Structures
1.
Amino acid sequence: QVDFVESGGGLVQPGGSLRLSCAASGSTFRFNTMAWYRLAPGKQRELVARIDRSSTRIYANSVRGRFTIARDNANYILALQMNNLKPEDTATYYCNNFPSLNSWGQGTQVTVSS
């Protein structure tokens, strides 16, 4: 069973924007805090942003003011709008519950490079 399917990544120049999307199963989405994480080569997985059922949002210091997390509770979609992207944002991005489940999707690759 695949609980999370991420999409929307790509190659973008510094200063550019991308919008990520995650389709989740209802059972994993409906009553839970959802989050975006990222994993860069040689680094540990990092929590990027999370959003609870009431749409209270918390962001990592490194992305605050540039990224916006949102959720569609009717369709079990989690989104991440990323603006003013920087090379250090390059990573594979994953969605999951917060705290995370042991099962992860394939993620979507974001590469920020000129």
Note: The mean pLDDT is 95.
2.
Amino acid sequence: QVQLEESGGGLVQAGGSLRLSCAASGRTFSSFTMGWFRQAPGKEREFVARINGRGVITDYGDSVKGRFTISRHNAKNTVFLQMNSLKPEDTAVYYCAASPVAGWDYWGQGTQVTVSS
């Protein structure tokens, strides 16, 4: 069983930055692909970014490419999402997720990010 806990959300002005963190329990963190998703009110959950176990392969949703960076620190069982040049449309609840093999089997409770114009 893996537990995920996000932190770092908050209110920021457009053009600003935030860094989200996701702390994971469990001994096999380094073998998991980790990802970030987000869900805005009235919208479906959207893929934001993912990173493989070793932290050398990353992938991003089109709406965040060039602005967001995902990284991980396996010794600390933590994955990060650095968000720069934030826009009001980035406002959402951001979720951390873990994929042991092929699906996103574990999810955090989410952290709210609000970007004011």
Note: The chain has a mean pLDDT of 96.
